[in-house]
Amino acid sequence: MDKTFVAAREDRPGEAWLSRFVAGRAEAESWYFGRGAALTPSAKDCRAALASHMPELIPHYERACALVGDDEVAHRLLSHYRPAPERFGCSQAVWLGDEGPALIRNFDYPPGVVSDRFEMTEWSNLKVICKAQRPWGGCVDGMNEEGLVASVTLGGSYVQGVGFSIILMIRYVLETCRKVSEAVEALCRIPVALPQNVTVLDRSGCYATLFLGPRQRPIVTRLKACTNHQCSTKASASSMARQLALLEALAAPSASLSSLTDRLLQPPLYSGRGSFPTLYTAVYRPAEGRVNYIWPGKSWYQSFEDFRVGEYTHRYG
């Protein structure tokens, strides 16, 4: 199938965002409720949880709620609080050699479900470039202009708990944190709904990979390569093969940022077919404030100094 991605500048959500939210409402409800709509909290409970754990996002949340109007279901969706389990597979690694520091990742997801938007925003007088995802505020990976990068992969199981979607937590750290130490503190403090792995890197080269999940203590590691399992979970063959491929690429005597990027465009890290293809590869370079989004045969550079709106259509399969 063909999928068109757009690069857009939208300082804060407004009428254009509202039009996208209305158009994608059915998919957002499917993501949030899954099969357990009756078990989700009220809009009042959702706001209270957000105010307790991520209070800096409340003004932005209330603006989004005002845009959608008196709509309790929409207000629950926008909170990202206690979403249903979901599946996706990704790979990510930290590079600290020449041309680094860099965080490089593959994002594997069904093309028809994932958002088409790469955005630069400025919610809180801090510019953020990210791969945006439903239904408001979510980021699967991104970087702020202070040089903090964050990226997420699934944690390997579908245990559900009382917490927030990781994609809103990624937004939160990009909006409020400048250094890895601050991001780690925030990610360990905020309850997460599902097992997730997050890698954070800043312009100084400090990094951490966190294993998060409901009803478990956060584990902060120095792993440079992360896929879709944690220390305490049984790895699938696919997840293990991808992590080993990343570790081998990082350890190769001739390793470079270019060779690592090339490796992510090859199996088993790159998947060109099936229901969860690799939708894009991203190379974040926080010291330079730029990112390269890559598809086979296509590179799309963006930076805080020169963010260019546009679109690109890629054929999968």
Describe this structure in words.
With 317 residues, this protein is α+β, with helices and mostly antiparallel strands. It has 2 domains: 2-79, no CATH class; 89-307, Penicillin V Acylase, Chain A. It has helices spanning 15-23, 25-33, 43-53, 58-68, 72-79, 166-176, 180-189, 237-251, 257-264; strands spanning 2-9, 89-95, 102-108, 117-121, 128-133, 138-144, 148-154, 196-202, 207-212, 219-221, 225-226, 278-285, 290-295, 298-303, 310-315. The chain is globular. The mean pLDDT is 94.
Concise description?
The protein is α+β, with helices and mostly antiparallel strands and 317 residues long. The protein contains 9 helices and 15 strands. The chain has 2 domains: 78 residues, no CATH class; 219 residues, Penicillin V Acylase, Chain A (4-Layer Sandwich), CATH 3.60.60.10.
Secondary structure class reads alpha+beta
- Identify the CATH architecture of the largest domain: 4-Layer Sandwich
Average pLDDT taken over every residue: 94
**Morphology:** globular
Task: Give the C-alpha Rg.
Answer: 18 Å
The profile of the biggest β sheet is: 9 strands, mixed
The count of β-strands is: 15
Through-space gap between termini: 7 Å
Share of β-strand residues = 25-35%
List segments where confidence is low: pLDDT < 50 over at least 5 consecutive residues. Answer: none
* Helix/strand order, N-terminal first: EHHHHHEEEEEEHHEEEEHHEEEE
Walk me through the topology:
Layout: E1 2-9, H1 15-23, H2 25-33, H3 43-53, H4 58-68, H5 72-79, E2 89-95, E3 102-108, E4 117-121, E5 128-133, E6 138-144, E7 148-154, H6 166-176, H7 180-189, E8 196-202, E9 207-212, E10 219-221, E11 225-226, H8 237-251, H9 257-264, E12 278-285, E13 290-295, E14 298-303, E15 310-315
